[in-house]
Predict the 3D structure of the following.
Amino acid sequence: QEDGKKRIDYILVYKKSSPQVEKRCTFEKNLRAEGLMLEKEPSLTNNDIMFVKVHAPWDTLCKYAEQMNIRMPFRKKCYFTDKKSKTLGRCHQIKSWLPRNPMKLDKEALPDLEESDCYTAPFSRARMHHFTINNRETFFSNSTRSRIVHHVLQRTKYEDGKLKMGINRLLGNNTYEAAFPPHEGGYKSRHPIKTHGAQNHRHLLYERWARWGIWYKYQPLDLIRRYFGEKIGLYFAWLGWYTGMLIPAALVGVFVFLYGLFTMDSSQVSKEICEANTTIMCPMCEETCEPWTLSDSCVYAKVTHLFDNDGTVFFAIFMAIWATVFLEFWKRRRAELTYDWDLIDWEEEEEELRPQFEAKYSRLERVNPISGKPEPFQPFSDKLSRLMVSVSGIFFMISLVLTAVFAVVVFRLIAMEKFASFNWHFVKKNWQFATSGTGVCINFMIIMSLNVVYEKVAYLLTNLEHPRTESEWENSFALKMFLFQFVNLNSSTFYIAFFLGRFAGRPGKYNKLFNRWRLEECHPSGCLIDLCLQMGVIMFFKQIWNNFMELGFPLLQNWWSRRKMKKGGGGGQNVDNKAQLPQWDKDWNLQPMNAHGLVDEYLEMVLQFGFTTIFVAAFPLAPLLALLNNIIEIRLDAYKFVTQWRRPMPARATDIGIWHGILEGIGVLAVITNAFVIAITSDYIPRFVYAFKYGPCMDKGHHHADECLRGYMNSSLSVFDLGDLKNRSMSGYCRYRDYRAPPWSPVPYEFTLQFWHVLAARLAFIIVFEHLVYGIKSFIAYLIPDMPKDLCDRMRREKYLMQEMMYEAELEHLQKERKKNGRRYHHEWP
């Protein structure tokens, strides 16, 4: 963005009425001393707002580019050949008679994607003659210029003689209202882009990336990276990769669901439940509830079969392998991006200390073992004590979550009795749906309420630790947010999966909470439908809520700002035409990017990844929901970044940070939880044991699976004498879900041999499943290298050529100097 005189690299915003005049004057005086040029201009929409336009001259850019080890173009790349192709790592553009793929990005519509294909090296003023400087105005890109200015703003003092520095602190104490690099211009044009071209990179991004009409197109990652920086570019690259990998997972999940749908009516277990008109089940509560017939739960049993069928085990194994393949191939994709974007050696060269860390520990210095320069350091005792306080805070917040889950459990126990004895027949008949549904809704409201608290607590605890660098701060904050929200989101799901109905007891001897409320028990067709309902409701509503908060809320805020601006609510001019406003005034009326950067964006997707993999055995449609959400999420985030947010500071990064380790941890946890879901929550193992040990196929040859399950429902129900109920005058027998001896046996209500066979089979399945899947995962991870071989060859080759070119360039420069000095000597000789 230019004002007609100089290129504007950064905008600072302050209120004229702010009392922090002295700090601001000192800060701006020191900025000028660092070589920056400042110009002030009042806002056209608010008389109390003043803009400070920051420009970095050529000498200042060169000085800090050298300090920050920014890599700049060195010389045009030389293509080298191999036996297989004319160029290594370069794709030939082959014209084909085949129709154009609609998914591909139209490179002809993106002429600005063609970047100068050059080698790069850390910038040095002493070797400036080595670099390709055709035009000083365009040598440093807009994002690089903004990054240099941000570096200066972060390290400039605002109080003379004191170690108080950085624009972040000035924003915190309201000396400045905002600080941001300006957008390059408007994102819309009166003329079509196909005929008149793009006005600027922002317009190009909107037309070829952020519009909803091109949701099926590939993302222009190079252009995203050039405009928003490598860190945001990597986020969208990862999000696009994750979304693409969800396609096969969603297809397999749909096939598993359709298999359950088509076999729902023919399922032997469902048939037996629907035909059990004479099977009397025991009362669901001990005071007001009456016995009921098993056939009343016919619909419940059929719905359960949708998610608890023979395809469940296969899908759980497939998703565990899918998670490994996704992460391994992402490593390869990341390696290609870091090479193409010149980030291979960046982390070692450019990791900077946080200004807050420097200010806190400036009096304590030690020599950096890598650079050999003195730098502030944090004593181990201080770091340990702060870490212990932080860990204690984390455990306190997690205990708060578990308390909330316990409260939901108590509510479910109370609601269970109320719904089971309800006067309305429909509710009484479907009391389990009513209990689960209301419990999930209350749990969702608690989750969203606690999320607000977690963010503030995580922010305080992370600042208390005083991380050394920005990446350490972000990783520490991200880990806390993930732990808080993961426990908050999944604790109730873990309860339903592994604890619901496990400790209920039996009729006549039910276990009670506080000797008052009877613990919940599973439906005769299993607990999996409760788990499925829990996951489906939370996943669906959470995605809707997140999408509203990400786009709907900023849209409302920006609409309100425009409305105030039109009315002159800020005391400024009543501007009818928004196009008359300068770009910095337009950007000021946009919403700032989240204070925590991309943490919220990654956190949403990583939690979704957990939902997609951890309990996928109970909800095979989770990958499909995730895929549909992510297709919307990519364009929603793109639209938000391009149109609704101020331009964020273009930051660099080599990977997705701590999130990769979290994803790997989720992949490991997913194997364990799916093994337990299949073995404990679902009825797969009891059906398997019955079919091969107790069913009609026990001593016969091969039969259809449903034939082997004939009589399973009767085998899984035990008998209870209603006369044994206390405070109830009832007679006869009822059935309940368990493997216990009948009341007329020598040891009534003791576990039968079938119970121990099922328990042994469950444990054996968990061990075999985990070892099998972990073995396959490890083998796949071993087979897939983290970096493609051709990329390794290209990097070695370019490193070799780089050394040669540096030597040749230096030699050429020396020869020119000698000739120049020789002519001067000859001219001066009398």
